[in-house]
Amino acid sequence: MAFTRATGKHRRPSRAARVGANVAGIATLTAAGVVAGVAAPAFAASPADDAQRHEDTGLTQAVVLSDHVADSVGEQAQMQQGSADQAAARHQAEAEATQQAALVKKRADEAKRKAEAERAEQERAAREAERKRLNAFVLPIAGSFVSTTYKATSGLWSSGSHTGVDFHAAEGTTVQAVGAGTVVEAGWGGAYGNNIVIQHNDGTYTQYGHLSSISVAVGQAVTPGQQIGLSGSTGNVTGPHLHFEARTAPTYGSDIDPVAYLRAHGVDL
């Protein structure tokens, strides 16, 4: 009786078909770039295993290759993750360093602005103090007092009355400019003896007479309280003192009340 080969889905695949499937699977893994270095040992079987190899369906090789692939992929993933972590840490460190540098610069800028503001305020205050000092007026002799009043009458004066006031002063007492201005006369003044006339910034003039010495020159700028000479008894006098006049012009005859003049400029006497 003749036997016939089973057909349909229950028929076992031919050896050629199974080998072809194995080769196709390996080729697919090789194309993925992960089995090139691990496939060779699977094909190095000894002759004693030939019979078993002929019966091998190719599944064992695929499993071995799959394990190697998994290990390789895992290692690659770990390396990539490590690199990513390092890059992230580096970026974070760079960002923190940039932020810290920005903070340091901000603080330095704020400190600089504060220092500049303080310096500007100090300069402004100094200018204001200097302005006040230059605009201030003082007594021509510090701590002195009026010994002869304005417009007092006597035969001692050619005009018949006193054109200024006399400040009490011993010989050689410091005489100072009552306010800021420019010297317009410095030298002998006849009955006034050695005298100085100063033009002030507000356009008024003051005169200092009977000096024993003069320490300024014509054209020289002076400031309030600056020494301009020493008191004495030169000219038409009966004793040492300072003759002081306030004027609207540099010449004789333009006199005004010197006490009222000084008080109008803030001098208390």
TrEMBL record:
Positions with biased composition (Basic and acidic residues): 106-126
UniProt domain M23ase beta-sheet core: residue ranges: 161-257
Signal peptide: 1-44
Keyword vocabulary terms for this entry: Signal
SUPFAM superfamilies to which the protein is assigned, alphabetical: Duplicated hybrid motif
Keyword Signal part of the UniProt annotation: yes
Region (Disordered): 75-126
Record CDD domains: M23_peptidase
Residues that span the membrane, as ranges: none
Compositional bias ranges of the Low complexity kind: 84-102
Signal is among the record's keywords: yes
Xref: PANTHER family: MUREIN HYDROLASE ACTIVATOR ENVC (PTHR21666:SF270), PEPTIDASE-RELATED (PTHR21666)
Protein name (record): M23 family metallopeptidase
Taxonomic source organism: Streptomyces luteireticuli
Upper classification of the organism: Bacteria, Bacillati, Actinomycetota, Actinomycetes, Kitasatosporales
